TrEMBL record:
Protein name (Swiss-Prot/TrEMBL): Alpha-1,4 glucan phosphorylase
Residues where N6-(pyridoxal phosphate)lysine is found: K657
GO molecular function: glycogen phosphorylase activity; pyridoxal phosphate binding
Top EC class for this record: transferase
Keyword vocabulary terms for this entry: Carbohydrate metabolism, Glycogen metabolism, Glycosyltransferase, Phosphoprotein, Pyridoxal phosphate, Transferase
Biological process annotations from GO: glycogen catabolic process
Taxonomy of the source species: Bacteria, Bacillati, Bacillota, Clostridia, Eubacteriales
Similarity section: Belongs to the glycogen phosphorylase family.
Native source species: Flintibacter faecis
Cofactor(s) essential for the protein: pyridoxal 5'-phosphate
Pfam families with a match to the protein in the record: Phosphorylase (PF00343)
Gene3D superfamilies: Glycogen Phosphorylase B (3.40.50.2000)
Length: 810
């Protein structure tokens, strides 16, 4: 039973229109109606959140603080209505007012406050923490411009600004009275009191105000409500009117502009000094504001910080928030007057670290000169942490400078954030079983041997209520019919009940019909958006994720080129129709990734023009891949490409979303694919390629991609095609060169595309043979859905709560 009736919701919406926008329903445009609905739901969540706050305060409960520079929230109106149990009622109310609910949902911009999997995971985890009634707060920056809008012009990626706040700010509650001051620059001098205690004086600094803009997070079937606190940056200094009156307009607003640029854009390019400086500012800005905010509330409740670590746990989501460690030390030492030993005890019992990557370039290292200039007091604390840790390492390893250098926090003029986490954090976890083993055996091997109890694993998970029930309503209905209700929404393991229908022809037929309808619906959306007509009789083979060389979109392209050559050679061959769908954004400064996007579009255009390929082979690059596009695409997908070089992908969560919606995976034994394979067995997944161990061995033995090129005529022809280019006369010779000879300091074929090419092609052949047997394909699809419950975020969060945070769950 919904808490509000259609009549009540209608009255609340019309009231908002009148009070906030001065409009009647007849005068309201869709943006007014969207904002009115958002404000109504926000009011409901705000009341619940205040009650949750009181409950947590009175119960003196331990709180979780989840720090992440990315939260890829997507759209919120439909999601919040769903979690509040008001989705049907809201749709009815809107229809009664003469508005289309689906059109209003489409109107909302994605809150693109993240680049990819890291941010989407954080959003899923917030949903689960709230649903499981864990007192938790997420913290990030209120980026004015989220991840860029991608436009494809002449086959190339062009980045456009993504100002999501026009409508998106309806969800945000500014709290000026909870602003915090963050200090940059200046100098620090040691001052000693009569008792010999040091009181560092920080002078000459610039202050930036951090203003909280809170987004309420509703849980599913619970009144418990948490918050995502997004920090906005403002200058405390008003505009200098004397400069303004002298006509020096830019100088008059300079201080404001310098402060506000911190929250202007998500992750600036950091391949130049200004970008590095701004990114470091962003990281310190958000952790400093966050720690001050947590401490202010804690002190108001308990009057002391001696019990801080008993009442709070701070989870660092990747290395970006690592400066929370010296910042918490700074406050405990300088503001609270604690001894180093007491402060360090509190910090190390409070902070935990999730590692998301084994890629060296993603384990952040900052030039010490930059930290010295920008954060002088933080630098002195970092030096002290580093020197104490160094002495500990020297005591442990004696003269083994190799191990000391590997584990040091400050070395060679750089500050290594991952090593700081290893030194200070209570626990360190990877995000899949394979990834956590690689951390222990390779990336942090010496640290693991010294403190094995510090290391653990929590395999990632997804919000199955959003990524199955909400985005795939007909599949949701089938699951409810087969498993006896909606129990799976809170107990995802109940999906296992589907498996007993593996030989039920009626259920398999319904599953196939649902997939086909989803394909038709997605094709209709693509046609409206771009004019591209998808062949819905073809198998939908999908690779969507950030464009990075290790994710090997290029391997997918090499295979498609080989298929194109087959068709050109033998137009009348027996050929299973295939539509390859790509969606990916490349980092603005990542030249190779952007070139691969151009290559996909060149190939797409060539195949589209060639009559030989009509109704047989199609390649489509989906522009501006984002959460809301994924929600339409994933239910329609049939083959999921999870083909990263084994040992490179920490986990992946897209692989779980596809599995949960019945797509079958072509994948390497990498990241969470390993655990998917454990659930599915060889017979329900299409594995190929080298294992992580074999990748290491191949490189140690000396890897020579030219051997594959010379010995495999199919591969040779494909690589030669890259060099020659296509009908648009664009050559991709430099991509071919990277594969065969290496370039820019990278070794030849760094991610072993050529070594895995033949195995990859064979996996496709196996998949297409099964696709021709619809009964077997649908059985495999049903099995994938039935065994996907273990990849729900609720399971992940329960593991964090039990093993790392030590907080109870619902």
């Amino acid at each position: 039973m919904a808490e509000y009736t259609k009549a009540q919701l209608t009255e609340m919406i019309t009231g908002k229109l009148q009070r906030n926008f001065g409009r009647t329903v007849d005068e309201a445009a869709p943006p007014h109606m969207f904002k009115a609905c958002a404000l109504v739901l926000r009011d409901i969540m705000s009341r619940r959140q205040m009650a949750t706050d009181n409950q947590v305060w009175e119960g003196q409960q331990r709180q979780v603080h989840y720090l992440s520079l990315e939260f890829l929230m997507g759209r919120s109106l439909e999601k919040n209505a769903y979690n509040l149990g008001l989705l049907g009622t809201l749709k009815d109310a809107l229809e009664g007012l003469g508005f289309s609910a689906s059109d209003l949902f489409e109107l909302e911009p994605d809150a693109g406050l993240g680049n990819g999997g890291l941010g989407r995971l954080a959003a899923c985890y917030l949903d689960s923490m709230t649903t499981l009634e864990i007192p938790a707060t997420g913290y990030s920056i209120c980026y004015e411009l989220g991840i860029f809008k991608q436009k494809i012009i002449d086959g190339k990626q062009v980045e456009l600004a993504d100002n999501w706040l026009g409508l998106g700010d309806a969800w945000l509650i500014p709290k000026m009275d909870e602003a915090e001051e963050v200090r940059f620059g200046g100098k620090v001098e040691d001052c000693w009191d009569s008792e010999g205690h040091n009181h560092p004086e920080h002078t000459g600094y610039t202050t930036v105000l951090a203003i909280p803009r809170d987004m309420e997070i509703a849980g599913y079937q619970t009144r418990h409500t948490n918050v995502l606190r997004l920090w906005d940056a403002k200058s405390p200094v008003p505009v200098d009117m004397s400069l303004y009156s002298r006509g020096e307009y830019l100088k008059a607003v300079e201080q404001q502009a310098m402060a506000e640029v911190i929250a202007k854009v998500l992750y600036p390019d950091d391949n130049h000094y200004e970008g590095k400086s701004l990114r470091l500012k962003q990281q310190y800005f958000f952790v400093s504001a966050t720690v001050q905010s947590i401490i202010r509330k804690h002190r108001a409740q308990y009057g002391t910080l001696r019990n801080f670590h008993e009442k709070h746990v701070i989870q660092i989501n990747d290395t970006h928030p690592t400066l929370v460690i010296p910042e918490l030390m700074r406050i405990l030492l300088d503001v609270e007057g604690y001894s180093w030993e007491d402060a360090w005890h509190i910090v190390t019992q409070t902070v935990c670290y999730t590692n998301h990557t084994v890629l060296a370039e993603a384990l952040e290292r900052w030039p010490q000169s930059l930290i010295q200039t920008l954060l002088p007091r933080i630098w002195t604390i970092l030096k002290e942490i580093a020197s104490r840790y160094q002495r500990e390492l020297e005591h442990r390893y004696g003269n083994d400078t190799g191990k000391i250098a590997n584990m040091a926090i400050i070395w060679g003029g750089e500050v290594r954030m991952a090593n700081l986490c290893i030194c200070a954090c209570q626990t360190v976890n990877g995000v899949s079983a394979l990834h956590s083993e690689i951390l222990k055996k390779d990336v942090f091997h010496d640290a693991y041997l010294a403190r094995p109890e510090q290391f653990t694993n929590v395999t990632n998970g997804i919000d199955h209520r959003r990524w199955l029930s909400q985005i795939n309503p007909r599949l949701d209905a089938l699951i409810r019919d087969c498993t006896g209700g909606d129990a799976y929404l809170l107990h995802p393991e109940a999906l296992q009940g589907l498996e007993k229908y593996r030989s039920d022809k009626t259920v398999l037929k319904k599953l196939a019909d649902i997939k086909h309808d989803n394909k038709l619906r997605f094709a209709s959306w693509v046609a409206r958006e771009s004019g591209v007509v998808l062949n819905t009789d073809a198998v939908f083979d999908v690779q969507v994720k950030r464009l990075h060389e290790y994710k090997r979109q290029l391997l997918n392209v090499l295979h498609i080129i080989s298929l194109y050559h087959q068709l050109r050679d033998n137009p009348n061959m027996d050929f299973v129709p295939q539509t390859f769908l790509f969606g990916a954004k490349a980092a603005p400064g990542y030249h190779v990734a952007k070139e691969i996007i151009q290559l996909i579009n060149s190939l797409s255009a060539q195949i589209d023009r060639d009559p030989v390929c009509k109704d047989k082979l199609q390649v489509v690059f989906l522009e501006n891949y984002r959460v809301s596009l994924a929600e339409k695409l994933i239910p329609a997908s049939e083959i999921s490409e999870q083909i990263s070089t084994a040992g490179k992908e920490a986990s992946g969560t897209g692989n779980m979303k596809f599995m949960m919606n019945g797509a079958l995976t072509i994948g390497t034994l990498d990241g969470a694919n390993v655990e998917m394979h454990q659930q599915l067995g060889d017979e329900n997944i299409f594995l190929f390629g080298l294992t992580a161990q074999e990748v290491v061995q191949r490189k140690q033995q000396g890897y020579h991609p030219m051997d594959y090129y010379q010995q495999d005529p199919v591969l040779k022809r494909v690589i030669d095609q890259l060099s020659a280019g296509f009908d648009d006369h664009v050559s991709y010779a430099d991509l071919a060169t990277r594969l065969l000879y290496g370039a820019g300091g990278s070794p030849a074929d760094e991610y072993l595309l050529l070594a895995d090419f033949q195995s990859y092609c064979q996996a496709h052949d196996r998949a297409l043979r099964v696709y021709g047997d619809s009964k077997r394909w649908n059985q495999m699809s049903l099995t994938n859905i039935a065994r996907s419950g273990i990849f729900a975020a609720d399971r992940s969060i329960k593991e964090y709560a039990e093993n790392i945070w030590h907080v109870p769950t619902r």
